[in-house]
Design a protein that fits this description.
about 75% helix; 4 helices; de novo design (two linked rop proteins)
Length: about 120
């Protein structure tokens, strides 16, 4: 069976890489954060990739835009959570910079996709 079209989207591929990095990074968070910041970051990362895929599967432009907007919001949410994780010294500045860069890049890509559809 051939992969769905969303897998060809560069933004989905980048979101997939980001989700993996978030999961690997949050493994080292304190156990007290299992249901806190760690879980929030994981859910935000998964929300990005999931909403990009779901939006691509929608037939109307309006539906596609709605899911892309949700994905963009999740990318921004993740960026903010990374800042907090760095403030709490759960992650190094280098890891925080990498996660922030990737979140911002995905946010910009999604914003561009939304602009192209208007």
């Amino acid at each position: 069976m051939a992969p769905s079209n969303y897998r060809k989207l560069l933004v989905w591929q980048k979101a997939r890489e980001l989700a993996k990095l978030v999961y690997l990074t949050t493994k080292s968070f304190p156990k007290s954060e299992t249901f806190g910041l760690s879980s929030q970051m994981q859910r935000a990362a998964i929300s990005i990739i999931s909403n990009v895929a779901e939006g691509d599967g929608r037939s109307s432009t309006r539906d596609r835009q709605r899911f892309q907007t949700i994905a963009r919001g999740s990318a921004m949410e993740l960026e903010a959570q990374v800042v907090v994780a760095a403030d709490l010294d759960y992650i190094s500045r280098a890891i925080a910079d990498e996660l922030e860069f990737r979140s911002i890049e995905i946010t910009r890509m999604l914003s561009g996709m939304l602009r192209q559809q208007n």
